[in-house]
Amino acid sequence: MALKGIALLVLIFVTNTLAACPMYWTEFNGNCYLYVGTPASNWKRAEEYCVNGGSHLASVHSKEEDDYIRDLWRMSRNEQTFFLDALKEKVAPISVAPFVYIGLNDRAKEGTYEWTDGSPVDYVNWMRNNPSSDPALSGREDGVFIWDRKNEGKWNDVRTKSPILIGPFICKRPAI
Ligand SMILES: [Ca+2]
Ligand SMILES: [Ca+2]
């Protein structure tokens, strides 16, 4: 009996130790998420960072997942990671609102959106007037971030290689 009890405890210990997600990642509905504030990056380098660690920029498939990611970001973010203050004079103040990169993009075909992790596009949460309706703009804006303009946390298509839009991002991988 005692041995069985110990075996059960060991099993619980091992199960908990071999958590479904790597250290520092958080689990939600069978996936693991990592908020990365450092290094802050543009969309392209953010995706490269995730890929180097065996993941991709986060894909979002439901309002629940959207809310989860937004909460993770709002809890984790440090306003110091936004390097835009020095640019207030040069860009519209509106751009200073916090943002976080996710994996949605239309790099392969303009106007056809895909997730970098290859999952289907079955949910979107675009900000009004996005993706940009001006073809000159949308043709250059092929990555996406969640933007807290007016604390709305909606999605905006943006340039993937911007030297200015340097910010945090969220990587996602399946739980083990
Ligand atoms: Ca585009
Ligand atoms: Ca846009």
UniProtKB/TrEMBL annotation:
Keyword set includes Signal: yes
Segment forming the signal sequence: 1-19
UniProt keyword list: Signal
Keyword Metal-binding (UniProt): no
Transmembrane segments: none
Pfam families documented for this protein: Lectin_C
Residues in C-type lectin domain copies: 28-157
Highest taxon above the source species: Eukaryota
Listed PANTHER family: MANNOSE, PHOSPHOLIPASE, LECTIN RECEPTOR RELATED
Protein name from the UniProt record: Brevican core protein
